[in-house]
Q: What sequence folds into this?
């Protein structure tokens, strides 16, 4: 009777070892799978972030170029107006000087 109990205990211990061994193998498989998924996600997210960064840089450059072109147009218009005013002011001075020369008032 004691031998049957001891044999039963040995069988239970052997079964426990097999279960533990199987669980250890399964845990290693799960860990490996999780690590592979994490690596894939990391690579995917890195690419997504790089793509986002590149799009943001491109958009910032486009915005800056648009703003620059707009500022240049505004300053060109301002400069043209200034030139017109200056030439008109100079024209009356020139006409005055020419008139004096022609009249002999100089």
A:
């Amino acid at each position: 009777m004691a031998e049957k109990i001891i044999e039963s205990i040995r069988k239970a211990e052997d079964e426990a070892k097999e279960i533990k061994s199987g669980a250890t193998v399964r845990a290693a498989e799960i860990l490996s799978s999780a690590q592979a998924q994490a690596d894939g996600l990391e690579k995917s997210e890195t690419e997504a972030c790089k793509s986002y960064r590149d799009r943001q840089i491109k958009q910032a450059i486009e915005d800056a170029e648009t703003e620059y072109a707009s500022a240049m147009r505004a300053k060109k218009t301002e400069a043209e107006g200034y030139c017109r005013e200056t030439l008109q002011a100079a024209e009356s001075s020139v006409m005055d000087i020419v008139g004096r020369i022609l009249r002999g008032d100089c």
